[in-house]
Fold this protein.
Amino acid sequence: MTARFKDKVVIVTGAGSGIGRASARAFAREGATVVAAGVRPQSVEETARLVGADGGTADAVVADVTRPEDMARLVRTTVERHGGLHVAHNNAGVFGRPTPVADLDLSVWRSVLDVNLNGVLIGMQQEIAHMRAHGGGVIVNTASNIGFHGRRPGMAAYAASKAAVSTLTRVAALDHIKDNVRINAVSPGATDTGMSLRPGETDADRAARLATTVPIARVATTDEIVAAVLWLASDESSFVVGHDLVVDGGVTS
Ligand code: NAP
């Protein structure tokens, strides 16, 4: 086992399932102390338990990324309990029900943007405030390859929010590289999680449905996405600033 994150403290949002849970486990396997954050206590506590069962160290904190007071508390609690904050993976996201633009309820549009875009901004504001006062840090945001194309009918809110995360990442990276805070994003393609599961569909059905849209003819494992997140969070990518790394099996190639 490599230990690229030995002595590092890492926050992962949306850590109660899917890519976030895999990220928390992967950072911990590589030596980090992980704070798994999310809205459902039982989900983030289960992630912390799994990290512990893997032999790692993790803590669970309930925090809603849309609430600045929650994200401030998350950073404060992390620093108080673990002595610092070196890496943040802003990963929480929601998909929303597919709806054509003309029929899209504004409240749905706003709620998707609130989590996917505002949540990343709010998280970064709290994380950067700590990092720049303590010598720097690294941030990786989860965007999506859907932000790069329009070929998911009915997904305007999701696609627009993720395109905005990509651009927000680039601007934030340039705003804060002088503070020694290095910021990048990963844009996954279809990944083996419960996101975008249709009513009555099993995980296997979803994977088979999405695989037909991917040149490599399958969906990604969460570990394939997390490998990119950890690389961007590590010193191996020390000259990579404001990049959005697409990991999508060729969809946007
Ligand atoms: P997921 O399992 O549904 O994970 C999303 C996580 O975000 C959940 O744990 C969810 O918690 C959490 N979350 C939602 N709203 C939140 C809020 N307001 N505050 C804090 N946490 C919140 O799906 P996933 O695939 O792992 O998604 C992770 C990220 O990857 C998302 O940003 C998603 O857009 C992105 N992504 C996924 C795919 C894919 O195919 N899976 C492709 C491209 C990008 P609850 O479950 O408790 O609500």
Q: What stands out?
A: DSSP finds seven helices and seven strands in the chain.
